[in-house]
Amino acid sequence: MALIRAQLRLYLVTDPLLCARMGLIETVTAAVRGGVTCVQLRDKSASTHARIDAARAVKSALAGSGVPLIINDDLDAAVAAGVDGVHLGQGDAQAATARARLGTDAIIGLSCETPQDVRKADMAAVDYLGLGTVFPTATKDDHKPSIGLDGLATLAGLTDLPCVAIGGLKHAHAGAVLAAGCDGIAVVSAICGQPDPETAARTLMHAMTPTTGENT
């Protein structure tokens, strides 16, 4: 499944605690009904076996939607579950290794927090970059200091790869994220932590849709 930039427009990153109230599958399917264009399964504390089981369940729920499913960090789980791709951090497997194991059609993303991260990204193996953390966030406690919107624009300007911004982002930031040069916005609590994920996603998607006359 080849990545197209539009699939980064509204990128949902799941959180096991925030999804617990409604349930992972219910949260994801509601969010997709609201307009989510890509789903990343992220559970830092789960075992590979548990990630495989969760990924297979989400994959089944997404069947026919056209929304890609990506697993965070765990290359073994991505291979075993047969999902659309993997998202790697700077300390995870090399992108070239992931490409070799997942194949040419897989989607491979890479987190970049600094200009150095962006410059050393393997352009031949990576399909998109996740840029941030833009603002402080409680859903990821191992990130470097937040870069703000100016820092986001700096990182986006260093690459021709598709980019998605992440870190403490809400619908009010949508226009600024697009103006910074990103293709989309990645959120966790702005959807998973809301009482109505479908409505939350729809509000975000509306904010990410340029009005007539703006660039797409």
Quick take:
Belongs to the thiamine-phosphate synthase family. This protein is of the alpha/beta class and 216 residues long. The protein has helices at residues 24-33, 48-62, 75-81, 95-102, 115-119, 148-156, 174-179, 189-192, 197-207; strands at 10-13, 38-41, 69-72, 85-88, 107-112, 128-131, 163-166, 184-187.
Instruction: Characterize the overall form.
Output: globular
Q: Helical region count?
A: 9
Tell me the span between the first and last alpha carbons.
22 Å
Q: Quote the CATH topology.
A: TIM Barrel
* Total tally of structural domains: 1
Q: State mean pLDDT (0 to 100 scale).
A: 93
Question: Which series of helices and strands comes N to C?
Answer: EHEHEHEHEHEHEHEHH
Strand elements, count: 8
CATH superfamily: Aldolase class I
Side-by-side strand order of the widest sheet: 1-2-3-4-5-6-7-8
Helix content: 25-40%
Q: What's the architecture, going by CATH? A: Alpha-Beta Barrel
Largest sheet: 8 strands, parallel, barrel
**Uncertain spans, ≥5 residues at pLDDT below 50?**
212-216
Strand content: 15-25%
User: Taking Cα atoms only, what radius of gyration do you get, to the nearest Å?
Assistant: 16 Å
- Kindly provide the name of the CATH class: Alpha Beta
Structural class: alpha/beta
